[in-house]
Amino acid sequence: MFPVKKISQMSLQEYDECMQVNVRAPFLLIRELSQSMVKNSWGRIINIASSSAYAGSPLTSAYCASKHALLGLSRSLYKEFKDSNVRVLCVSPGSIKTDMGKEVEKLGQIYNTFMEPEEVAKYIVFNSLWDGNMVSEEIRLNRVTVQ
Q1: What's the number of CA atoms in the CB half-sphere (13 Å) around residue 120?
Q2: Exposure winner among 2, 30, 51, 132, fewest CB in 10 A?
Q3: Which is the catalytic residue, given 63, 78, 111, 123?
Q4: Residues paired with 145 in a beta bridge
Q5: pTM of the full predicted structure?
């Protein structure tokens, strides 16, 4: 969910929907699915946050708040599950060429400079397959070209 509007114009329902989709849904999925991961001493939990998890932007207060919350959840779960060989990774990409990315153009960004979804997906898969002693708990992905 990516509501783009002033906080004074945002309804409580829009805020709640944003938090339900971006924070509550991952919480519920992780709560249920992590039990078998811990039991099997192996698993991967990958949360997709956003560069907005580390920043704030005008007209995106609910979205930014939800991504900050998802980052906090991921950081806590990383520590909770690390001794169970369940890796928690929070990926925070910058703007991506998606329908949601087109909404960001309203905020002054240039769509053709955004990252390709396939490239982001390949990067996430590569990192999730790593099974050695080295681990990333957070990954921030940024686009090279910013205008």
Answers
A1: 23
A2: 132
A3: 63
A4: none
A5: 0.91
C-beta separation of 96 from 114 below 8 A? yes
- Looking at residue 147, its pLDDT comes to 54
Rg (CA), the chain: 16
3-state secondary structure of 121: helix
CA distance 59 to 64: 10
**Six-digit token string for 116:** 């390709």
Q: Is the pLDDT of residue 29 over 60?
A: yes
Q: How far apart are CA 49 and CA 137, in angstroms?
A: 12
* Active-site residue, 63 included: yes
Rounded Cα–Cα distance for residues 97 and 147 (Å): 15
* Token pair 């078998």 in the structure block, residue: 36
| Burial (Cβ within 10 Å: 0-12, 13-18, ≥19) of residue 98 | middle
Q: Are 101 and 95 in contact (CB under 8 A)?
A: yes
38-72: pLDDT as tens digits: 999 999 999 999 999 999 989 999 999 999 999 99
For 83-111, write each residue's pLDDT tens digit.
999 999 999 999 999 988 888 777 888 89
